[in-house]
């Protein structure tokens, strides 16, 4: 009798727990919609009539005028008003990859994802329109960072910075080539003419990046460093660009290029923004600066499915990457907060959980289709385990954390209110039509009031390693959103929208 009663109690407890889990399940469709909407808040240039982030208005309409080149458009990378083309191109590449992998799960949001990609690629066509030059940046970062102004008001120098044959910048050029190649595949069916334009430009810019090798640190260092200084060298971007061009064209030249250079890449030491070595080796890195793990995962699909090419070292490095992430792996090189958020050295941390989880999810799909698993010494990692780890990171971001706080603005009941973002923190043009000059925004920056404009979908830099979060504009490492945090999250949310029980 006692055993029967206890069994019933246990059953009720289990049923209650299941109900709670179901109630607590995240609205991934809503989060997906918001994660794409965020990019509208980062737009530079003449905004279209379809603009949904209505507190944003036209800005930087004369970019490039002083040199007679139309450089209007593109994205502001974070909470400032500079167009840094290196991280912008990476964000575009990953957005395109998200669509290529998970478009069938995006539903009505696919249209908006394509708009987000095209906003960038239209700009990159402009930035690569002058033969022998690739524009790497628009705006003086020091002047911009000295002011707290709305993008609609900014009166700081909009200086264009370019790389050239004499002053090369292979990393920014090759990343733009990768973005154009990946995006050409996205538009291949819906707009074949545009797709062809993107691919043709990609091949030209890749050739430029490869023929005139050098880092933009050397040519544009005073303006690109320390903001987006290239610490990993430019060879990873060249291989990344070649890998995407091979995927887009299937031409053996690009595959041979990757194979012939991949072993040279392994010799590179990847450094973080403080100049100290990463722990996991180059195969473990993926982000706006380092493309190493992304290269291995990207080419692994064909290698796993048909084995037409030599898989060494791509599959072994892809497996080693997985083993640096899994919490139970004996070769784990990342750390986790007590609440379960992944941490790596360098910069705004939330870029790491989103980018690395995206790679886990993509690789899990490839492994599953090929019926393969990963061995981390004596630990076996199945595709479902990779998906589970990625989902844990997404759920943490959306609110499953010690603070019960969503780190996506506008999602959930509790989210960051004082993000480090000029446009969001200053009154909109509609509510304050008068010009706010360089220092006129300072009182809004120092205010403890919530931001008046919600940058819906923005994911901030995130909590500290102890899961604490300072909701303060001054703590920009924690409170600043970036395009390269959101870009990989788009693909993750699209997948979990259709596989919430994974």
Automatic annotation (TrEMBL):
Which GO molecular function, any one, fits this protein according to its record?
A: cellulase activity
Its recorded reaction(s) are:
Endohydrolysis of (1->4)-beta-D-glucosidic linkages in cellulose, lichenin and cereal beta-D-glucans
Which residues are the signal sequence here? Answer: 1-25
What is the enzyme's main class? hydrolase
Sequence ranges assigned to domain Glycoside hydrolase family in this UniProt record: 28-493
Return the InterPro entries for the record.
6-hairpin_glycosidase_sf, 6hp_glycosidase-like_sf, Glyco_hydro_9, Glyco_hydro_9_Asp/Glu_AS, Glyco_hydro_9_His_AS
What keywords appear on the UniProt entry? Carbohydrate metabolism, Cellulose degradation, Glycosidase, Hydrolase, Polysaccharide degradation, Signal
Q: Where is the active site?
A: 420, 471, 480
Q: Which family, according to UniProt? A: Belongs to the glycosyl hydrolase 9 (cellulase E) family.
Q: What is this protein called?
A: Endoglucanase
The organism encoding this protein is Tetracentron sinense
């Amino acid at each position: 009798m006692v055993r029967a009663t206890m069994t019933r109690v246990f059953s009720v407890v289990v049923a209650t727990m299941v109900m709670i889990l179901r109630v607590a399940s995240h609205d991934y469709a809503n989060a997906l919609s918001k994660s794409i909407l965020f990019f509208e808040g980062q737009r530079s240039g003449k905004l279209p009539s379809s603009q949904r982030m209505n507190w944003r208005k036209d800005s930087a309409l004369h970019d490039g005028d002083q040199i007679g080149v139309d450089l209007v458009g593109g994205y502001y990378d974070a909470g400032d008003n500079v167009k840094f083309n290196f991280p912008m191109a990476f964000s575009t590449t990953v957005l395109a990859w998200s669509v290529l992998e998970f478009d069938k799960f995006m539903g009505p949001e696919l249209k908006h994802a394509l708009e987000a990609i095209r906003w960038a690629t239209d700009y990159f066509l402009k930035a690569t329109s002058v033969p022998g030059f690739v524009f790497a940046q628009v705006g003086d970062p020091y002047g911009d960072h000295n002011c707290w102004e709305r993008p609609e008001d900014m009166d700081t120098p909009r200086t264009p910075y370019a790389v050239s044959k004499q002053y090369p910048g292979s990393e920014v050029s090759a990343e733009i080539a990768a973005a154009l190649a990946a995006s050409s595949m996205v538009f291949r069916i819906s707009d074949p003419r545009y797709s062809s334009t993107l691919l043709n430009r990609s091949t030209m810019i890749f050739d430029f990046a490869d023929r005139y090798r050098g880092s933009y640190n050397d040519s544009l260092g005073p303006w690109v460093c320390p903001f987006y200084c290239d610490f990993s060298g430019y060879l990873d971007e060249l291989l990344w660009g070649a890998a995407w061009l091979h995927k887009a064209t299937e031409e053996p030249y690009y595959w041979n290029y990757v194979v012939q250079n991949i072993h040279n890449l392994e010799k590179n030491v990847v450094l973080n923004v403080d100049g100290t070595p990463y722990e996991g080796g180059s195969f473990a890195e993926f982000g706006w600066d380092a493309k190493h793990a992304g290269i291995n995962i990207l080419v692994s699909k064909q290698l796993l499915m048909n084995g037409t090419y030599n898989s060494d070292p791509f599959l072994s490095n892809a497996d080693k990457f997985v083993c640096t992430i899994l919490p139970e792996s004996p070769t784990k090189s990342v750390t986790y907060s007590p609440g379960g958020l992944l941490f790596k050295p360098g910069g705004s941390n939330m870029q790491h959980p989103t980018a690395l989880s995206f790679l886990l999810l993509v690789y899990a799909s490839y492994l599953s289709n090929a019926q393969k698993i990963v061995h981390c010494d004596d630990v076996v990692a199945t595709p479902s385990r990779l998906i589970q780890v990625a989902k844990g990171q997404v759920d943490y971001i959306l609110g499953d954390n010690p603070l019960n706080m969503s780190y996506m603005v506008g999602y959930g009941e509790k989210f960051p209110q004082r993000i480090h973002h000029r446009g969001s923190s200053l009154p909109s043009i509609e509510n304050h039509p008068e010009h706010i000059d360089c220092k006129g925004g300072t009182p809004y920056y120092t205010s403890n009031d919530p931001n008046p404009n919600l940058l819906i979908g923005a994911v901030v830099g995130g909590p500290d390693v102890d899961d604490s979060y300072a909701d303060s504009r001054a703590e920009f490492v924690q409170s600043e959103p970036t395009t390269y945090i959101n870009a990989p999250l788009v693909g993750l949310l699209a997948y979990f929208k259709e596989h919430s029980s994974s």
